[in-house]
Amino acid sequence: MSGATRVKSDRQLQRERLRRTRAVRSGTVATVSTIVFLGAAAAVVTRSPGWPRVQDSFFDPEAFARAWPDVLDGFWTNVQIFLIAEPLILLLGLLVALARNLRAPVFFPLRALAVAYTDVFRGVPTLLVILLVGFGVPALNLQGAPRDEVTLGVIALTLAYGAYVAEVFRAGIDSVHPSQRAAARSLGLSHGKTMRYVVLPQAWRRVVPPLLNDFVSLQKDTALVSTIGVIEALRQAQIYAASKFNYTPYLAAALLFVLLTIPMARFTDYLAARSQRRRGQ
Amino acid sequence: MTRDDTGERRGPVSLLTIEDVWKDYHGTSVLRGIDLSVEAHEVVCLIGASGSGKSTLLRCVNLLETVDDGAIYLDGAEITDVRVDPDDVRRRMGIVFQAFNLFPHMTVLDNITLAPRKVHGTGRARAEEEARDLLARFGLADKAGAYPDRLSGGQQQRVAIIRALATRPRLMLLDEVTSALDPALVTEVLGIIRELKEGGMTMILTTHEMGFCREIADTVCFLDGGVLLERGTPEQIFTDPREPRTRQFLKSVLDARRL
Ligand SMILES: Nc1ncnc2c1ncn2[C@@H]1O[C@H](COP(=O)(O)OP(=O)(O)OP(=O)(O)O)[C@@H](O)[C@H]1O
Ligand SMILES: [Mg+2]
């Protein structure tokens, strides 16, 4: 006799029926209340006195269609910047976090540098970092220093976000209970091996949700590189908006950013729910 | 089943009745049609090999797991009914686990008074007075203001039991409350359970301490692969088990003791 072939009792069948009807009922309630809520919100907005003007300058289908191809084209630049910056940030953040965890006195300069770096770059607004790197580095006229705006943008974003990510990693490393470290050291593993095989794998699971959150934020902040002359989605939208005094292109850019961040946000939720379930057992 | 005046179906009259309960994990049944009833003031002890389903059964009774067939009744009312609020049921039971699960950020007193105050609406003064009474009764009067990490394992487990008691449950479920403790600390926790029995508390407990089980239980149940294979008085189970599997299990426990 195994669970799979078991015949369910009438009581269980009735219980499952009841559970299903309840699920359907709560689904219906959720749907109806959502529709009512959205309807009410739409009614309030469209009846406001300024709505016709807003509709003209923000929801103009023609302007949308005209700007869309170029905005979309510019958006690929955002995606590229994001995809290149992301692994660099992870690497930089991890190295800085590890440097801050080095306890031996010889490593003092390294540790001090790591502390100084996080302090400075978490404190300076991202936009300022981008401007300083974007205009400052080329002005140095250094041999071999990059002059291309996209590269400079990636460097600036990496520096700015690396500091945040380093702190996320550090919090994750610290959250692993000291007894784990002690257990690993007692088996004769070195500091490095303890980190690599015992601490980081456990820390990693805890830092993934906050890291993804930082990356959602990074996706949006790729728009900031428009200030140093990169023609990306925001810049394209700006160009169109300025030529026709119509703000609809901004809406097109906003839509693209939202479409990119929503899957990321849902993925974060999914990971958070999964680790919650694991811990629950 | 009995019917009351209104003709409505009423459940059985024991304090707790477990009727043909099944529990599956990923297609395999870990509980296979458990039937068990517990009378008021009765102490039932579940024994059986590791993995036989003892903890799972307690978790089902506390509605931490949903049963996959069968029903459980508390005071004659079905608690496995889909419409029943699990919080409402749990309010009437106390459960203590092997790991103490005290809240590390609260003092002993706050750990104990949390549920009476926030769930049962008891005033702070009264809740604390009752908590102090309980602590005194179980020899922990001086620990009221301490944080859990300043207590020994045995003390922590006693606080966990007191915390479960503070809501005046109808039924206590104790899952291997001594197995995380070293032998010297086991005695003090067993002492608390003995006192509870004298006070007339209804309890279901799982344990690997056969001597204690024999002493404290009114009824001993032997679980084997999710089946309640044998049930009887401690005297009968320990001296004259009917089932060969029971005999085998008790023999293996005794052999391990001799090592
Ligand atoms: N959440 C779960 N998911 C899948 N299987 C589970 C889960 N919980 C328990 N099991 C399985 O159910 C069976 C019974 O487990 P249970 O914890 O009830 O045993 P037990 O009798 O309490 O054992 P022990 O004496 O070691 O505490 C085991 O085979 C276990 O692997
Ligand atoms: Mg168990």
Automatic annotation (TrEMBL), chain A:
Q: Where are the transmembrane segments?
A: 23-45, 79-99, 120-140, 250-272
**Which Gene3D superfamilies does this UniProt record tie to the protein?**
MetI-like
The terms under GO molecular function for this entry are:
transmembrane transporter activity
Record's GO cellular component terms = ATP-binding cassette (ABC) transporter complex
- Asked if Transmembrane is a keyword of the record, the answer is yes
Q: Which GO terms describe its biological process?
A: amino acid transport
Q: Where in the cell is it found?
A: Cell membrane
Task: State the similarity comment.
Answer: Belongs to the binding-protein-dependent transport system permease family. HisMQ subfamily.
| Name listed for the protein in its UniProt record | Polar amino acid transport system permease protein
Q: Which PANTHER family match?
A: GLUTAMINE TRANSPORT SYSTEM PERMEASE PROTEIN GLNP, MEMBRANE COMPONENT OF AMINO ACID ABC TRANSPORTER
Location of the ABC transmembrane type-1 domain? 75-268
Superkingdom assignment: Bacteria
Q: Which UniProt keywords apply?
A: Amino-acid transport, Cell membrane, Membrane, Transmembrane, Transmembrane helix, Transport
The yes or no answer to whether the keyword DNA damage is present is no
The cross-references to InterPro entries, in alphabetical order and at most eight, read: AA_ABC_transptr_permease_3TM (IPR010065), ArtM/GltK/GlnP/TcyL/YhdX-like (IPR043429), MetI-like (IPR000515), MetI-like_sf (IPR035906)
The record's section on CDD domains has: TM_PBP2
The topology of this chain with respect to the membrane is: Multi-pass membrane protein
